[in-house]
Specification:
By secondary structure, this protein is an alpha+beta fold. 67% of the residues lie in helices and 12% in strands. It folds into 2 domains: 166 residues, no CATH class; 154 residues, Reverse transcriptase/Diguanylate cyclase domain (Alpha-Beta Plaits).
Length: 334
């Protein structure tokens, strides 16, 4: 639960709003009914029910974009109704809504919702005691919306930068191990749902320590970047490459198995053999390949690919080992 809240900003906003709605609106709704103001009480209950329903939908389905849109519509509509029914006392409900919308939907949509809400309230004569109050309210609401837009935009930009830093390997520019864990979980879930085959390739540069020891880490870093560039240039957009650690990488290949997988691996091996070089000569790699089994866990899948890579390194390097049928494509030196 707390992991989802920490990693999904919109879900955290929806949850916070839901909790505040339960704690804040419920007493007002009860008070309206006690005072005999049934219409206002029903408005409060309607707002509360919509917010709680959107909160439940977000947690159950994970579709926070849809829940955010519904929630933004509900709170803006509820705030306008509160102003129309209760007059001046109800106008204050709109101000937190003007801020919250920018964290639930895109800036453009939030701006449109806020503008419509303000104009609708201005068109309701009973909501204001005078024109001066109406225009003062409009100016204040517009200022609040503008400040909320700037803050939300900066917040979004900073969150995107932090997410990039947290999920991308700074040296090679590919996704890191944290991203790999998430993508493998998605792949396993999609495979169970659709039956699409997935192959996992663990790739390790042969004798990489010698490159660093003899020519320095600067040359080693350049080899890593060249490796990534070659793999990305010779794989599909749907394939995903991750840096697992050091000179070890993981390649996720959806939709390939059997003969097609062998062809892909042979082609990739030949490309790296031919083009991956440094001052000391060509660079080779070893490969462990595993197809995702039906109902198999990600840990088991990754473990079988790692074991196949270990066999490739132990039996001479510069070769491909397939974990699923123990088939071996041994590579002769070029």
């Amino acid at each position: 639960m707390f992991h989802r809240l920490r990693n999904d900003f919109r879900l955290s906003i929806i949850t916070m709003l839901g909790v505040c709605a339960i704690l804040g609106i419920t007493p007002f709704a009860i008070m309206r009914f006690v005072q005999g103001n049934t219409v206002a009480g029903l408005v409060d209950l309607g707002i509360l029910a919509g917010i709680v329903g959107s909160l439940a939908h977000a947690w159950v389905t994970g579709r926070t974009e849809r829940s955010g849109m519904v929630l933004a519509l509900i709170i803006c509509t509820g705030a306008v109704l509160a102003g129309a029914v209760m007059g001046e006392a109800g106008l204050f409900w709109l101000f937190p809504c003007l801020v919250t919308t920018f964290f639930l939907v895109s800036g453009r949509v939030a701006t449109a919702l806020n503008l419509i809400s303000i104009l609708v309230l201005m068109s309701i004569e009973t909501a204001f005691s005078s024109n001066v109050q109406m225009w003062t309210f409009a100016a204040t609401a517009a200022t609040v919306s503008a400040c909320a837009y700037v803050f939300a935009h900066r917040n979004q930009d900073q969150r995107e930068r932090l997410e990039h830093l947290a999920t991308i390997d700074p040296l090679t520019g590919v996704k890191n191990r944290r991203s790999m864990d998430e993508e493998l979980d998605r792949a396993a879930a999609n495979a169970e749902r659709t039956g699409l085959p997935y192959a996992l390739v663990m790739l390790d540069i042969d004798h990489f320590k010698q490159i660093n020891d003899v020519y320095g880490h600067g040359v080693g870093d350049e080899v890593l970047r060249d490796l990534v560039a070659l793999i990305e240039h010779n794989t599909r957009k749907s394939d995903q490459l991750f840096r697992y650690g050091g000179e070890e990488f993981v390649l996720l290949l959806p939709g390939v198995d059997g003969a097609s997988l062998q062809t892909v691996m042979n082609n990739l091996q030949q490309v790296l053999r031919k083009h991956l070089k440094y001052a000391g000569g060509p660079v080779t790699s070893s490969y462990g390949v595993a197809l995702l089994g039906h109902g198999e866990s990600v840990e088991s899948w990754l473990g079988r690919a790692d074991e196949a890579l270990y066999q490739a390194k132990e039996t001479g390097r510069d070769r491909i080992i397939f974990a699923d049928n123990n088939a071996q494509l041994a590579a002769e030196p070029a």
